[in-house]
Specification:
The protein is of the alpha/beta class. The protein contains eight helices and five strands, in the order βαβαααβαβααβα. The chain has a five-stranded parallel beta sheet, with helices on both faces. Helix 1 crosses helix 8, helix 3 crosses helix 4 and helix 3 runs parallel beside helix 7.
Length: about 200
């Protein structure tokens, strides 16, 4: 199988990391997670994710540095599963397959609460605030509309199936991809890649 770049995108709690990790193992690729990079930067500064997100609201360079790294990885590599909320957008014309994972807000917040050991109400409050902040920032920085799913090759509601079944759906799509019979990577119009 020829190497390719696959992106896994979606909002917090959608199952991106689980699917991306399994897919990377299946393909023998590296798994690069924007969320891990962002969390690492927050840890380096001794801040919670929520505090670091608030700092990012004031300092555009935090987001832009992470996004620049995602874009450079996409441009330079074709044996990676790139996972982040913006992975599909940042990879743009370099990605062979772009996948969007989502689930209803309540489902995602329950998952986040379980993962992070907090109440569902606290997870929901933080998630709603984070998503509103990120949506506004990415619209301002890059002219990205998160409601536009037309850039993705596959969109899966992860509340409909368990993690293994969602991963099976994604694996089937990736394994069935034949680059020589496809239009290939496609650019995304009207995005400003300004870092």
């Amino acid at each position: 199988m020829a190497t390719m770049l696959v992106t896994i995108s979606g909002p917090p709690g959608s199952g991106k990391s689980t699917v991306a990790s399994t897919l990377a193992d299946h393909l023998g690729y590296e798994h690069t997670s924007g969320g891990d990079i962002f969390r690492g930067l927050a840890d380096e500064r001794g801040l919670t994710l929520e505090e670091f997100n608030e700092l990012a609201e004031e300092d555009p360079q935090i987001d832009k540095e992470l996004d620049k790294q995602l874009r450079e990885t996409a441009r330079e590599r074709d044996d990676v599963v790139l996972e982040s909320r913006l992975a599909g957008w940042m990879a743009g014309e370099y990605a062979d397959i772009k996948i969007w994972l989502d689930a209803p807000l309540g489902t995602r917040c329950r998952r986040i609460a379980e993962r992070e050991g907090k109440t569902p109400a606290a997870a929901r409050k933080e998630t709603e605030k984070r998503e509103a902040s990120e949506n506004a920032r990415y619209a301002e920085y890059y002219d990205i509309d998160f409601d536009d799913l037309t850039i993705y090759d596959l969109s899966v509601n992860t509340a409909r199936w368990g993690p293994e079944e969602v991963t099976d759906i994604v694996l089937y799509a990736v394994d069935a991809y034949v680059p020589s019979q496809d239009e290939g990577p496609t650019p995304i119009d009207d995005v400003r890649y300004e870092f």
